Amino acid sequence: MSKVLYIKANAKPEGVSRTFRVSDSFVESYKESHPDDEVITLDLYKENIGFLTEDDIALHNVEFGEGKDHPVLKYAYQFLEADKFIISAPFWNLSFPAILKAYLDYVSVSGITFKYTSQGPVGLCQGKKVIHFVTRGGAYSHEPLSAFELGDRYLRTLLGFLGITDFTTVALENMDRSDTNIELVVTDAIKDAREEAKNF
């Protein structure tokens, strides 16, 4: 049995968010094909994720097991305990919503999700896998706009730092272009996502 963390970072609700329409369908299919797995939904806006305070930062180098019930550190322990991650976040201002960065600051804790050694930092989240769902207004997966894509690249880099290298991106692009049939793109993406979920 695997523990799956479904991380949602969009102020728009289900049914309105194009990103959530695809990722929710993926999760629905995943649950159908993996009935014994535990899927935990973490809607960052509903969690009221905020920015780290001075006191929170002081706790970001801990002995493992310390602060499991702390309102901020609990997210790092939850992240470590998960086997798979589904991250759903739109492409905002060349990256992703700031609330997702705030959450990543919560989970990047020395002593929990990574550690410092005499050889440098070592990620403690090896063997896990991630799928990232994102919708973008333009075509940022190839040149010339790929140089401006900072969201997916940051996620891959940071999660790689934590030890996670099995990373898949599902990107819907050109969603704000007048010549894009948005409903067709989303419908096709939902079909593909439901199939991909079976083997995730």
Automatic annotation (TrEMBL):
Keyword Transcription on entry: no
Catalytic function, reaction form: N,N-dimethyl-1,4-phenylenediamine + anthranilate + 2 NAD(+) = 2-(4-dimethylaminophenyl)diazenylbenzoate + 2 NADH + 2 H(+); 2 a quinone + NADH + H(+) = 2 a 1,4-benzosemiquinone + NAD(+)
EC main group: oxidoreductase
EC number annotated for this UniProt entry: 1.6.5.-, 1.7.1.17
Subunit (UniProt): Homodimer.
Q: What does this protein do?
A: Also exhibits azoreductase activity. Catalyzes the reductive cleavage of the azo bond in aromatic azo compounds to the corresponding amines.
Protein name per its UniProtKB record: FMN dependent NADH:quinone oxidoreductase
Q: Which species does the entry assign this protein to? A: Gottschalkia purinilytica (Clostridium purinilyticum)
